[in-house]
Amino acid sequence: MTNSNTSATGKLVYQLEEMILEGVWRPNHKLPSERRLAQRFGYSRTVIREALRQLQAKGLIITHQGIGSYVVEVFHSIEEEFIDPLVHLFDSHERTLFDLLDVREQLESHAAFLAAQRATQTDLYQLTQAYERLASPDTELTMDTYFNFHHMVILCSHNPILVQTLCQLKALLCKAIQTCLPLLIQDAEVQNQVRSQQQQMYEAIVQRDPVAARRATKTHIRFVSHHVHSVKKSNFY
Amino acid sequence: MTNSNTSATGKLVYQLEEMILEGVWRPNHKLPSERRLAQRFGYSRTVIREALRQLQAKGLIITHQGIGSYVVEVFHSIEEEFIDPLVHLFDSHERTLFDLLDVREQLESHAAFLAAQRATQTDLYQLTQAYERLASPDTELTMDTYFNFHHMVILCSHNPILVQTLCQLKALLCKAIQTCLPLLIQDAEVQNQVRSQQQQMYEAIVQRDPVAARRATKTHIRFVSHHVHSVKKSNFY
DNA sequence: TTTAAAACACTGGTATGACCAGTAATTTAA
DNA sequence: TTAAATTACTGGTCATACCAGTGTTTTAAA
């Protein structure tokens, strides 16, 4: 895209990706050493290294000093390079995730505050529906029902800017925690806690208690943040 | 992640990402040349290059031969979807502007809160500069100096998500009030009030008083909101 | 004076060779 | 036989030189 066709490194990256995707180098296959690759492809070791670093950054290979480089399990095509730059950052910069959850706490608690003030009868009806889909203890807690309820709360705030902004943050959050989320919602204790917290949010809103709604929301997001934290910490792969 | 802590390149990548996240290098900012970076960070050009290649592979920077490397708009893809549908709302639906200012109040007051906690010495120096350009009573109050100061406050929060989000809101706000803003800042009384409010924000931050900083910011934005309101009311076109 | 060409000073891209730092197999000495 | 030392790989880093684009400045011609 940028200079894949012009620069030697770009061309080499493309070649190497081809070889991996074509199956010349299968997953777990050990690549030749950098010096051998340089010889074989007719490039300097500099070019070979930069190309390998790019493959590494893309997650196609993994490299160990003194050992060599290995092809990883690749289950997605090259097209996947269009994912958000921010996603990478969430992996290496853990605090970015907390920054995100911090902003979410500010906005969504305010949304709950407004929701308790402004929600119409129709809103409350829909909110109740969303809540009941969530609250029944026999059904599984899914990301869908979870976000559905929260989105409904946000809609009740009747602030389109708030809605837009929080939708963006939600998209980011989904990408950021998609790996560790399954671990989270499997935990039965977490499920119970979340259900209890959302019950408090729900009741505060229908009872028109803005302060309580805000407090309940803050409590919930801090709970999530805390648990995401602990999951991330015990998650070395 | 893999060897971020062991290798020089890994550490450098992390550092550079931090600088981008912290806002030291903002979107569209041109990075120093590779040779300068090598000198500045004390690494060989090889390491610098490999780190930059990784950032490039992640989509954080874009590089042109003979030109240099630039920080990309991290949120760019989303931003278009974000702004476009909303702009036209401001014309027809006046309260959207207040919704926007409401969200801004939530986020920017929180940013000021964090700024009072987290601002570094360098931050405070830059903040002081921005404030002094703003505070001198003989110079005109311009949109530039105004937003410059507020942006600096936001940067002091050291929360990249907050920075990005508020940048978007600022862009929206500019489009929304570009017609009525001249009427606002012409008013000498308004100017004095704003200066006084920003002085309180500034002093609260340098005195490391988060609560006062938050309160001052809320006060200021509510003041703006109120005056925008009155201007809009006497402004039918 | 104006203007187009040439020189210059940057930028990133590539090549080489040397050396450091891990790893693992091989050799050596106990 | 076994444990330690050697050796030969691996990737990681450094320094230097040069190539290749880009933009500005200078220069020389019109």
From TrEMBL, chains A, B:
Origin superkingdom: Bacteria
Q: Does this entry carry the keyword Kinase?
A: no
* Domain HTH gntR-type span(s) in chain numbering: 6-74
- Read off the InterPro entries from this record: GntR_C (IPR011711), TF_FadR/GntR_C (IPR008920), Tscrpt_reg_HTH_GntR (IPR000524), WH-like_DNA-bd_sf (IPR036388), WH_DNA-bd_sf (IPR036390)
Keywords for this protein? DNA-binding, Transcription, Transcription regulation
**SUPFAM superfamilies, per this entry?**
GntR ligand-binding domain-like, Winged helix' DNA-binding domain
Instruction: Give me the segments passing through the membrane.
Output: none
GO MF annotations in UniProt: DNA binding; DNA-binding transcription factor activity
Q: What is this protein called?
A: FadR family transcriptional regulator
